[in-house]
Amino acid sequence: MTGTDNKEVAADKAAPVGKAKPKSARRWAREFAVQALYEWFVAGHEVAAVRLRTEGDADFKRADKEFFRALWTGVSSDPSPLIALVQPHIDRPFEQVSPIERSIILIGAWELQSRLDIPYRVAINESVELAKTFGGTDGHKWVNGVLDKLAPALRADEITAAPTRSPR
């Protein structure tokens, strides 16, 4: 064995071996929503047909069905108001954003606007995690930046009331 081989073996032994945390029912719902919105944007299928196909997936039983339906309806019934909210915070026309990142941004914007029961940091983090799972290499950074700019417009009171973190 060379010195490099020893380092690789040591790195393998040092790597955490624990199981990944199971996804919550809401995370499943968000993931199904990303995929359904992607289908809607790319294939142009009817909204009702996309929803029914999505809900017919074998794994859909893991999702929070009520949350999915509220999210799906909130975004797909008329995305124009959500697009108008995010457009000032992006550097190109919304239609030029990749369909995956478009879907994720709309989900995040909808949560920030419509689900005040979900803390704004959670809404942003969930969108970032979706972008890490489904988006391009640095898509999660872009999603984070856009939603960080949008949050003060929609959640000013919550952001003002949030405790600030002390520097380490």
List keywords for this structure.
168 residues; mainly alpha; N-utilizing Substance Protein B Homolog, Chain A; globular
Notes on the structure:
- The protein has 168 residues and is an all-alpha fold.
- Residues 4-15 have low confidence and may be disordered.
- It contains 9 helices and no strands.
- Helix 2 runs parallel beside helix 4 (65-76), helix 2 (25-43) crosses helix 6 and helix 6 (99-114) packs parallel to helix 8.
- The protein has one domain: N-utilizing Substance Protein B Homolog, Chain A, CATH 1.10.940.10.
- 67% of the residues lie in helices and 0% in strands.
- The longest helix is centred in the N-terminal third of the chain and has 19 residues, at 25-43.
**Integer-rounded radius of gyration:** 19 Å
The fraction of residues in strands falls at under 5%
The number of helices is: 9
CATH topology-level fold name: N-utilizing Substance Protein B Homolog, Chain A
Largest sheet: none
Q: Please mark out the parts with pLDDT under 50 across 5 or more consecutive residues, or reply none.
A: 4-15
Which percent range fits the helix content? Answer: 55-70%
CATH top level is Mainly Alpha
Mean pLDDT: 89
* Beta strands, count: 0
CATH architectural arrangement: Orthogonal Bundle
CATH homologous superfamily classification:
NusB-like
Determine the N-to-C terminus distance.
41 Å
Topology pattern, helix = H, strand = E: HHHHHHHHH
Shape: globular
Assembly level: single chain
Number of domains: 1
